[in-house]
Amino acid sequence: MGDFNLTVILDAIRRSPGGLSRVELAQIVGLSPQTISNISRRLLDQHLIVEAGKEGSGPGKPRTILRLNPKGMYAIGVHLDPAVTTVVLLDLVGTVVQHSRISTPGGDDPAAVIATIATEVLRVAKDSGVHGDLIAGVGVASPGPIDLDHGTVVDPPLLPGWDRVELRQALTDATGFSILVDKDVTSAAVAETWAGGASGSGSFLFMYMGTGIGCGIVLNDEVVRGTSGNAGEIGHIMVDPDGPPCDCGQRGCVKSSCIPQALVAEARAAGLLDGLPAGTSGPEIQRSFARLCELADDGDSRAVAIIDKSAVLVARAVSVITNTLDVERVVFGGPFWQGQSQRYLDRIPELLAESSAARLIHPIDVVGTGVGEDVGAIGAACLVLEHTFAPRAQRLLLEV
């Protein structure tokens, strides 16, 4: 119970950027002033919070404000996307202290990719100058599906050769850090709740736009992972009955119609990407997709048509999910988001409003991430902080 109350208080302070006094904490979390005082002293002794001056108006003693200590704890986050691998070191308030981004090694050899990730993790930790004892662990955001209990990547469609790869154990052995593995879309949603500001509160979808497309789900400030940790797999929602065939046997799924690889193939067939290599590796798809978005920004009518059509199809998939879950907000982000962001934000809000079952009751806001393009890696680091410090019911269970 003591550990649970500690995380409740720490979480309340985290959610208040301006800090809270002990009196305000007692009002918010419902614990006695003595309990608040005891736990606050414990957190101060552990250097997880600091006393940040006094505030007060009117009669009475000024109140001492408690805030998170940015240097009290750190976490490393890794985002493994088929196109790009990003590594960040985050402090306790969610600020990126150290950063690395490299192209994900090609081929179908998971061992080579894992060795590269381990090297980058150790380099980022060393270059940051942060003492290893202050790094709580490493979170890894991976394409799904995953086996959450065992930290295993289970044959993701855009990472050939990754068939039941024990990523958590391999990185633990290679780095010596404690490792957490979660889905990229879930990690992005966690990042938004920790560091996204207003866009990360309440109930929302995080539409992850990477080499693949998926969604993270947050309901009433709680991240939804599903039975096996694989919630958010939306690749086989049908959005275009006359669209290209999908490997699931349907036509016009998100996977076959909306992901960057499909849009690049469409652009190439229209003669838009002549001169660029026609490769299908993640980094090659990323370069080709970036060029397609540049052409659309420059006003090329064929490129505009491809991006605008994809916005319509993505809006159809999003409407299925928002009508099912009744959320208040859709947040877009991910490594491929920026190039198409303006056209999507211009079109999707209206399309979503037209198809919303609850449109006469509440609007659905559509926004870009408040975290930035490294949302996957930042979310992976936040996974570690969440696991270490967020209030969880499991903390109340007695071990026998």
Automatic annotation (TrEMBL):
Name it: N-acetylglucosamine repressor
Superkingdom field: Bacteria
Q: What organism is listed for this UniProt entry?
A: Arthrobacter ulcerisalmonis
- Family membership, please give it: Belongs to the ROK (NagC/XylR) family.
Name the Pfam families on file.
HTH_24 (PF13412), ROK (PF00480)
